[in-house]
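User
New here, help please:
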Amino acid sequence: MKNYNIYSPTAGNYRPPLFLIAVMALGLNQGVQAQNFDVLLDSSGEVKEEAYEYLRKATFGSDQAYEKIQGPHLKQLMGEVVGFSRKSRDDGNRYWGRISGTEYESMTADWIAEKFDELGLENIYSQPFDLRPQWFPVDWSLTAIGDGTTLNFSSANPATRMPGFPGTMELEAVWVGLGTEADFIGRNVQGKAVIIQTMLAPGQMGNSASWEGATLRARDKGAAMIIGIWGYAGNLAVWQSLNAFQMIRNDDGSSRYVNQQLVMPGFFMGWEDGQRLRDLVAIGGSVKISATLKTETREGLISPSIFGTLPGTTDEKIYVMAHMDGYYDAALDNASGVAVMLILAEYFAQIPAEQRRRDIVFIGTAGHHVGSPNAVYLRDEGMLENTALMINCEHIAPTQFVKFNTELRRTTTITPRRWWVHGSQRLLDITLDAYRTFGVSLIGPMDGRATGEMMAIDKEAPSVQVIRSPEHKHTDGDIMALVPGVGVEAVARSFAKIIDEVNKLDIDQLSAAVASVN
């Protein structure tokens, strides 16, 4: 029998492999240059765009037509959209971004209309929606004082829709961990600022404080304020509500949202700030929270949707939509979706009208983060009748994170996305074939409903989407560098192929079978 042991401490004849001798020799050479640990990173510390290039799949035959859709152009379009957010920031707004009802959302809409016009789309128009009174935080502060130390928190934001208050709130702080019933045992939180560690559910914008009912529990036990610590690494500033919500899978595979609203004084802060606050409380003395918040309720705001159509040869419709608003840079959510929508308009504008079977209607949709009024408008106005397909472009391709000790490390791959198809088996086959062709990574089980912009109308017509809500959604970490161009390109190419294949079939071949009633 052969002995495959490289080393036996009793054999007395161990010879180190040549490669190990070489390594040992190098280790003795003090002049050897230090290893470059950042070879895959750019000057800002983010993964280089070219590090993702290996993900691009080769195309063959008729699929080579989709090579016209290129990642660098998509990133350029995204950058222009992000520019409207940056203007909001540079104009001095603390609550900044392409916020619904603001001039920065309208600037985005006007820019999309100009793009539609340049591409030769027809019937370009703006559909305004009156918004209900909107919450706007204007200025705020949050500090903690204890053991002779004063902590300021750069990542602290007020919980969304939290009413402002005059003067300063000063409260004793109490730590309750994850905020489960067990965590509250022995803790008196009456009239105090309750600190809750919120563990994230990557991919769906959920967090433990929500699904454990921690915020509701704190309120019911008499807390005067809730402070949520967001996540498990980094120092993300997030816009998040105190609501208790989660998506629940039904027995038939469909899903539903359960949402219990909670409006009371509250703040969220990033993980690093949260650890400093936790450690101050851990000293054991009294810790006082001091908070201020000035808000405005703005009435009479309008959020516009922008429509443009590439006419086909029939009166049947395909809708391609992407919401325009977003918090901070909102590169993933949703400059990525707007870029995909526009590049699909570019691609199909190059096809002669007589070769387009159906009208393709492109929509930059209004007010997504304040209720998505465009979706119900399409339904209530009867615009979805005679529709062969709806595609929602949203949160297209975020980079994959890996939690490593106290770091949220970036990788050189795209995170798997949640996905949705409503329609026939043939539509499902077309969709999955396109994703396989271009390398769009997916989570195994399909979503039980279409989340996001299309949620209210996901079964009104055949529909398709991929979406992902990663750890940095709605935070100041939603930046361009975390949306690899090759990933956005793969989804855009897939959607183009899906539209082409759908145009070979009649609507009844694409629609979901109607269950018979006995």
About this structure: Confidence is low (pLDDT under 50) at residues 1-28.
